[in-house]
Structure formats: structure tokens, C-alpha cells
Amino acid sequence: MKLFECKDSPIKVYGLIDFYKNGSLMRLPEEVMEKMSQLRQFGSRSTGGRICFRTNTKKLYMKLVSKTFIRDYAATQIASSGIDIYTGDRTKGVYLGSVFPTGARGTDLNVSEKTFELNGEMTDFTVFMPKNEHIENVYIGIDEDADIEAPTPYKNKKPVLFYGSSITEGGCSSRVGNCYNATLSRWLNMDYINFGFSGCAKGEPEMAEYIASVPMSIFVMDYDYNAPDAEYLAKTHEPFFKIVREKNPDLPIIMLSNPNYAINPEVNEKRLAVIRATYENALKNGDKNVYLISGEKFYGDDDVFACTVDKSHPNDNGFYRMAKEIRKTLELIFEKCCEEGK
């Protein structure tokens, strides 16, 4: 068997900004976490990171080595600590399986490994990193006589950046490939960055300044659920938008409200009104690259209470419905960008 680390060429790592600067598997740079210590735990995770490559091996060995082992009250251990592997064309990708700590007696909770049997055809593989763990390394093993190549590029040259709550982070899909931004990435062959921080993304100006400096094709503001109340959201939402907009005058920006509108409409209508005001003020100021997706639409009209695990975090059903609604706007923007040659 030939064994590779995820940092080895021609393997590519996406979604982790500092990886190609210093090999970091953390999604936030050290200097950002020094300024915003509340993000240390969550910024050190590899959430949203993907390892991509092509190979014609008949046996694929995957080994995940984590620095942590975290249990999540509302998530499966597969989603919290495991990697998801998809194979084939990303827009029609086949879920190959997950590698995660089983907790079986005598096993190391920080090391997970598995071998998959394949047909030996040259094809793409996309490996989604765990939601909760701090990752030390991921190893890929292939047959001695097999080849490994660089992956098929994503359709968008710059990633879509999602900033928001634990919902944005992926809580609580049954596995990481099923959260809404990962699902959209598969459907649209779309590179992305996941800046969802459980309870800690509250529209701070320091984070807005940092996000404004990150190269991206689209920015999705999704931190509604982390704002303690509508009053706090009103103080932070439009200023956050304006900081990003000032440095990115032509960037498409999508504003989301949280998906649980129907579960608590009185409270969520006040929050939605704040986000709508930011959006409408931008339009009044001549902004032609701003979009609003209301959480009213996310779960549809039928059986909305079957869409969460705890009346807060979506389950796989809820995330699927969210992705279907958000997809419409993303496709509209990507089509517009292609028409304008961007």
C-alpha cells in the first residue's frame, strides 16, 4: 500500500484558509483567535474542510487522527467525530461511507480507520472533515499499482463563505455531508468555507473586518440564531453587513434568517424584520448584489416539527429542505456571474 498524508501533492485541501500557508488544519488563523478568544475552541476545528483527489485504486484506506474526542448531546458520533467520503462526479456523488471512532472496547478514540473496496476506475473522491474535532492528520492509502491525481476543480474559483451559528456549522445533521452547506457544495460542485461557530458568532466587527479580507465569490450572513435577541441583532446586523460591503462593493451577499420561523413565529418575526431592514436599506442605497432568504420558507408548510432534533437544530430532513431553498438563490447568482464573465 502507498500511504499519503492529506498535505501531500497532488491531494488538495479546500475550505481551510491557512492550510497552504502553514499546513494548519484549523479553519481560523491563529491571529484571529488571539483577537477573539471566544472562537478558540470552534476556530481550531476543521469544520467545512475537504480533502479531494482522484485515484483508480481498488482498495482505499482512510485513517483519521484527531487531537480531541468530543461528544455532542444532539449529534451522532459520526457527525461529531467522523469524516464522510463521497466518490464520483460531485454533483452526482455517491456516499461511500464514514470513518469515525466507534468507542468499541480497546479502540483509540482519537484514531479511526477503515478500508473501502472499489472497482478500480479513476474517479474523484471528496472527504468532508468532522464537525467538532481538532484534526491532527488524515492519511490516504491506495494500492501499490494505483495512481493518484489532483481532483477535478470546483466550479467556482473563489469559495462561498458561510458565517453563522451552530446550524451553519452543521448541527445537527446525522453526518457532516448532510448539513446544508455541504449538501449545496455537492449539488453545485461549489467550494465553500464554513464559519459557523456554535453560540459564538454574534456579528462582532472584528470578525466582519476579517471576513471582508477573505477572497470569496459569495458571502452568506447566517448568524441570526446566535444573536441573543432582536435588539442585539438590530445593533449588529447592518453594521456587520456594511463593513463587509465597504471592502467588497461588488460581492453578492445573501442574508438568511433562522429556519425555525414557524416554531416560534412571534419571536422570529422580530428577528426577520431586522434582517429585512438591512436588506431593504441596501436596496435603497443602490445595492444590486444583495439577497434575502427568509427562514419562513425553509421547512415548507408540511410537518415543520419533523425538521429539527430539539426545536432549534435541523436534522437531515431540515437541512435538506434548507438546501433546496438556498440553492435557488445560489444558482441565480452563479448564472448571473457567468453572464457577466466573472
Summarize the structure.
This protein is α/β, with parallel strands linked by helices.
Descriptors:
342 residues; globular; 10 helices; alpha/beta; five-stranded parallel beta sheet; Rossmann fold; 2 domains; six-stranded antiparallel beta sheet; Jelly Rolls
Characterization of the model:
The chain has 10 helices and 15 strands. The protein is of the alpha/beta class. The protein folds into 2 domains: 148 residues, Galactose-binding domain-like (Jelly Rolls, Sandwich); 180 residues, 3-Layer(aba) Sandwich (Rossmann fold). Strands 2, 3, 5, 6, 8 and 10 form a 6-stranded antiparallel beta sheet that branches. The protein has a 5-stranded parallel beta sheet with strand order 12-11-13-14-15, with helices on both faces. Helix 7 packs parallel to helix 8. The longest helix has 24 residues.
